[in-house]
Amino acid sequence: MKSKPIIQEKSAVQIIFWTCLAEVLLMQGIFTFSSMLPFFFSEWNLNSVDAGWISGIYYGAYMVSVMILVSITDWIDAKKIYICGALLTLLSCVGFALFVEGYWTAMIFRTLGGIGLAGTYMPGLKALTDRLSGKSRMRATSFYTSSFGVGSALSFLIGGYTQNWFAWETAFWFAGTCALVAMLIVWIILENRPNQVGERSGLRSLDFRPVLRNPRAMGWIACYSTHNYELFAFRSWIVAYLAFALSDAAGGFYIQPSLVVFFGVLLGMPASVIGNELSMRYGRTRIVYSIMGLSAVMAIVAGKSIGMADPLLIAIVLVYGCFVTGESASITTGAIESATDESRGVTLAVHSSIGFIGSFLGPVGFGIVLSAYGGHNNANAWFWAFVSTGIILLIGPLLHFYLRKYKLNNL
Q: Are 155 and 28 in contact (CB under 8 A)?
């Protein structure tokens, strides 16, 4: 039996606002390591491959755990999963501040943080959309996915500047406190829903075959995977790139890389919302293909921008950052709208798990290419790392086109 969205005393606007605010708060620990990467290169004697793994393992842990955690939201109220995930995020941030001393301990607590993200990001979206309907649900998706960008921007800014004024551990303590506040917000704002009994309850909620047999959903999931490869390669390495590129660029002034990334990631929120609105007006497939194609071009331009005047280099990075996130909400909305009400949770689980294969491989792959061509102190290496990212991005639209034309074999 289909469950209807719960009618609450709180308005849809209130629910969307508070849930998005909680998402922003939970993101404070996600890019703290990346924002301090130039410092950790010297502090822990890391090479490009080491740094790529510390960044990537976060999304690898997410990829492995999200399939289960999001699938069971078709059975268990997503709010309960979210609160548990927020608690793990809190523990990962505090543990990083207290116990991390180098590569291996960083890997442990980044792994824990990735599991926390798996319990909050898509379960948070499921908790939100379960309590809304119609256009409110469609627009909530774009605002919620864009709030990921706002939180990411603040994570870069706070991490980069905290390191200048305090011990690096302070940023992780702050991120842990934010996770606690987010947990309390969701606990109070979202009303509880009963467990569901029916086709998708219990272990049946872990049956992924209906999604894998849905070519429309799988096409969007393919796009999401290569989108995430680019997105998380960009966000994991962009501070280190700017720290290198701005120091060599002609122009005569210096700006904190974390500040540039803050504005770049912040611009990703309206870019994602605008992309979704354009998709609703002109067609989702057309807009997503266009944005991903232009983003691949901008990856090449960004890789060739070392040596340009500082203002021009910064402008290129900011524009590229908008294209990197421009199709995010459109792709996720496409996946949600391709699913039935009974399989929305498991569709989001497959969407997140397969999609975050790209999130895991992006930072690692970028670091491997960077190392293969000379390391993070070589301009040619940065160029080929960006080019490889753009090439992989284009695989998503090609797979989506194929799956639209040909049905998947039954599994």
A: yes
Do 79 and 345 form a contact (C-beta atoms < 8 A)? no
The phi and psi torsions of 86 (rounded to 5 degrees) equal -65, -35
Q: State the residue for tokens 């606990």.
A: 187
Which tokens is 311 given? 């203002």
Could you tell me which of 77, 65, 72, 90 has the C-alpha nearest to residue 182?
90
In a domain, 411, yes or no: no
Q: Which residue shows structure tokens 């289909």?
A: 2
The whole domain housing 342 covers 12-405
Q: Tell me if 175 sits within 8 A of 155, measured CB to CB.
A: yes
Give the predicted TM-score (pTM) of the model: 0.77
Cα–Cα distance, 224 to 356 (Å, whole number): 8
- Which helix (H) or strand (E) element contains residue 235? helix 215-248
Give me 323's structure tokens: 């294209």
Among 17, 26, 6, 4, residue whose Cα is nearest residue 191: 6
Q: Kindly report the CATH number assigned to the domain that includes residue 363.
A: 1.20.1250.20
- In three-state secondary structure terms, 36 is coil
Report residue 258 CA to chain centroid gap. 18
3-state secondary structure of 373: coil
Residue 2 counted as domain residue:
no
Which has the closest alpha carbon to 145: 391, 354, 351?
351
The span from the CA of 340 to the CA of 347, in Å, is 9
Tokens in use for 381? 């290496």
Query: Which residue ranges in the chain fall short of pLDDT 50?
Result: 1-9, 200-203, 249-252, 408-411
In the structure encoding, which two tokens stand for residue 284, read together?
């989702």
**Which two three-digit tokens encode residue 333?**
């909305």
Q: How distant is the alpha carbon of residue 126 from its chain centre?
A: 16
Q: How many domains does the chain have?
A: 1
Q: What residues have CB less than 8 Å from 83, skipping those under 6 apart?
A: 183, 186, 187
Return the sign of the alpha-carbon dihedral for residues 299, 379, 101, 168: negative
**Domain membership flag for residue 259:** yes
Asked, for residue 261, whether it belongs to a domain, the answer is yes
H/E segment holding residue 149: helix 134-165
Q: Name the one residue in this structure whose structure tokens are 């960044």.
A: 55
pLDDT in tens, 340-366: 666 666 777 788 778 878 988 999 999
* Alpha helical stretches, state H, 72-133: 78-99, 103-118, 121-130
Pick left, alpha or beta for residue 133 (phi over 0 → left; psi -120 to 50 → alpha; otherwise beta): beta
